[in-house]
Amino acid sequence: MSVLPSKFIIVALLTLALGACRSREVKSAAPPPLVPVSVAVATEESVPREIHAIGTVEPSATVQVKSQIAGQLMAVRFVEGGDVKKGDLLFQIDPRPYQDALRQAESAVARDRAQLRQAEANQAKDSAQLKNAAAIADRWESLQKQGVLSREQSEQMRTNAETLRESIRADTAAIESARASVENDLAAVERAKLDLSYCEIRSPISGRAGNLLVHAGNLVKVSDVPLVVINQIEPIFVTFGVPEQHLADIRKNSGNRKLPVHVSPQNDPGRSAAGFLSVIDNTVDSTTGTIKLKATFDNHEHILWPGQFVNTDLAVDTLSNVTLVPAEAVQAGQQGQFIYVAKSDQSVERRNVTVGQPVDNRVIIEKGVAPGETVVTDGQLRLFPGVHIRAVAADKLEPGGN
Predict the structure, then answer these.
(1) Is 142 strand, coil or helix?
(2) Lower CB density within 10 Å: C or N end of the chain?
(3) Average of pLDDT values for 157-180?
(4) Residue partners of 308: CB distance under 8 A and separation at least 6
(5) Where are the domains of the chain?
(6) pLDDT (tens digit, 9 = 90+) per residue, 84-124?
(7) 346-384 confidence digits (pLDDT tens)
(8) Looking at the domain 38-58+231-396, which fold is it?
(9) How buried is residue 148: exposed, middle or buried, by Cβ count under 10 Å (0-12/13-18/19+)?
(10) CB-count exposure of residue 212 (10 Å: 0-12, 13-18, 19+)
(11) Domain spanning 67-94+199-225 has what CATH number?
């Protein structure tokens, strides 16, 4: 066999190897793929300057319903935990003893009124007799002066007239006593009616009833234990404390307008309620260095509940022309918080930022980003300075991209 074919095979293999190397060099020279991320544009807006605190919900009024009379509790006329209106019937106490007391008081009024009429009749009779006796006494005195009657007869008639005058005075005193008795009896009737009305215990306020504390069939005493507790929750209060360094600012801005307050339950942050600052406490707590504030909410939808803890935002004034970005754009690093900013050539730049107060799902950037710049909001874990990106919608980004 000839040696020439072997050399030909070797040359062919070297040519193939050189072609493969060149192919790998071409592939390695291709640009790296773009990293898919979600982006948003920083905006410039005016937003309220807020003070954040944890507040406690309190009812605007709390009433412990007690009995004002003693007796047996006959019936309960409300549903535990239900809403009640002012004047609604809550409890009924056995009215029979108080009905008897009312009848007795009314009978005493009738008796004393009869005695009053008798005293007035006696006075009228004695007045008529006095008038006649006085006329006779004057006539007899004239006859005595003429010598027709003796002096003893004239004085006897005069004495009779004086006796009738004293009887009239006694009649007047009896009338006054009878009238006083009638007034006293009328007061007893009113008291008996009042006690009888207390047999029906009605709600003094509109609100939400709590648990039943005394059940039907039990004997109750005057102002003894509460029968039920009612909380008024429309309107409702939220109390919260803020550091005393905010006091001057709050007083200044609340002087000519009501400062808005927004709260959201800690166990349901998706719901919120709007109210206004209504009370600034008159002293600073020296142990905590805070001032206690109270906000009022109409609470028609019953979002707030007494005893509940809520996140509270007090809007003191307005911050003008601030830069806002989505909160998820801010990342935490070893040197502090930073944001990836997309440049015009689709590369990214890492910038350290100073973050201000949150505004809903956004935050204020006090330093590091200007309005109109594009920031990365999702996919930051795959980024580093200089890498190029491709903006995609948040729902199109692969899970775990951030």
Answers:
(1) helix
(2) N
(3) 74
(4) 56, 57, 265, 266
(5) 38-58+231-396, 67-94+199-225, 96-197
(6) 999 999 999 999 999 999 999 999 999 988 888 887 787 77
(7) 889 999 999 988 887 899 999 999 999 999 999 888 888
(8) Elongation Factor Tu (Ef-tu); domain 3 (2.40.30)
(9) exposed
(10) middle
(11) 2.40.50.100
